[in-house]
Amino acid sequence: FRVSPAFSLYARQLQDSLLQASQSGMES
Length: 28
Prior knowledge:
This protein is mostly helical. 82% of the residues lie in helices and 0% in strands.
C-alpha cells in the first residue's frame, strides 16, 4: 500500500486540526 504525498499532507493537516480542536476544547 503506497501513500501518495498529497494524502499524507492532507492527513497531517487533518491531524493538526483535530489536535487544535481537542486542545481548545480542553481549555474551555
